[in-house]
């Protein structure tokens, strides 16, 4: 199968999803945390911060509950969780098509596009519906290329931008808020999370695409948290759920 020499692309700018504040910014803007910091010296309670990364595992394709893979994120120690941070670096996706074929003596222009989306949510193989979403992104990429005389098919790739989110107890995004829902998902010392990946509306030269493979997505999930450990009695301040 002959491949195109290159594939040029244009893409719509996806709308940022979730907070892109750093943990330090989230700390500075949390009124509840300000109260806790003011009283921590009186109670003797310290704040533990931790950051790390986990790699994807258990990839499934065409599964009943959707394509994707899992991340088992270590949960904070018991205490008052002040914030939880998730981030993905930029992601590479590839589209390898076996058609169209070019039986002419001239270059065949190929226009093609695809819609994509991903979500970081609780693992659907551990928790029933609905699964709360903690980080997500989506967009549509449109490309053009050419197939040489006697050739067929094309290879293309695109890059999805980095995304991050900081979950805080004072969030008003939902009720319960995302941090509370995350803390409720703790199982055996980890948060069982799932990267759900979806492609749709694949078009080649104005027609529904057929005969191709799609691949890509995030390998590494970065995470961080801050917690006041449950070593002493902590003042009753409304800062979120207690991790048990």
Quick tags:
single chain; 244 residues; mainly beta; 7-stranded antiparallel sheet; 5-stranded antiparallel sheet; 15 strands; 11% helix; elongated; disordered N terminus
Detail the topology: elements first, then pairings.
Layout: E1 8-11, H1 23-28, H2 31-43, E2 48-55, E3 57-60, E4 68-74, E5 79-88, E6 91-101, E7 108-122, E8 133-147, E9 152-160, E10 163-167, H3 178-184, E11 190-204, E12 207-208, E13 212-216, E14 220-229, E15 242-243
Antiparallel strand pairs: 1-8, 2-14, 3-4, 4-11, 5-10, 5-14, 5-15, 6-9, 6-13, 7-8, 7-11, 11-12
Summarize the structure in words.
This protein is mostly beta strands. It has one domain (8-243). It contains three helices and 15 strands. It has helices at 23-28, 31-43, 178-184; strands at residues 8-11, 48-55, 57-60, 68-74, 79-88, 91-101, 108-122, 133-147, 152-160, 163-167, 190-204, 207-208, 212-216, 220-229, 242-243. The strands form three sheets. Strands 1, 3, 4, 7, 8, 11 and 12 form a seven-stranded antiparallel β-sheet that branches. Strands 2, 5, 10, 14 and 15 form a five-stranded antiparallel β-sheet that branches. Strands 9-6-13 form a three-stranded antiparallel β-sheet, with no helix packed on it. It is elongated and about 75 Å long. Mean pLDDT is 82; it is low at 1-30, 38-44 and 232-237.
């Amino acid at each position: 199968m002959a491949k195109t020499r290159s594939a040029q692309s244009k893409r719509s700018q996806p709308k940022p999803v979730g907070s892109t504040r750093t943990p330090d910014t989230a700390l500075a803007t949390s009124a509840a945390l300000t109260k806790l910091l003011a009283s921590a010296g009186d109670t003797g309670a310290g704040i533990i911060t931790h950051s790390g990364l986990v790699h994807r595992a258990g990839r499934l394709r065409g599964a009943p509950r959707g394509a994707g893979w899992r991340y088992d994120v270590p949960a904070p120690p018991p205490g008052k969780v002040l914030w939880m941070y998730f981030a993905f670096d930029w992601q590479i996706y590839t589209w390898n098509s076996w058609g169209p074929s070019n039986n002419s003596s001239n270059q065949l222009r190929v226009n093609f596009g695809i819609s994509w989306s991903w979500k970081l949510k609780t693992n659907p193989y551990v928790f029933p519906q609905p699964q709360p979403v903690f980080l997500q992104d989506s967009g549509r990429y449109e490309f053009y290329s050419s197939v040489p005389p006697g050739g067929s098919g094309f290879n293309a790739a695109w890059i999805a931008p980095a995304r991050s989110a900081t979950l805080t107890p004072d969030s008003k995004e939902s009720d319960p808020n995302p941090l509370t829902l995350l803390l409720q998902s703790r199982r055996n010392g980890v948060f069982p999370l799932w990267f759900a990946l979806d492609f749709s509306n694949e078009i080649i030269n104005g027609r529904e695409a057929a005969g191709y493979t799609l691949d890509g997505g995030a390998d590494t999930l970065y995470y961080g948290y801050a917690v006041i450990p449950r070593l002493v009695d902590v003042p009753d301040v409304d800062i979120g759920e207690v991790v048990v």
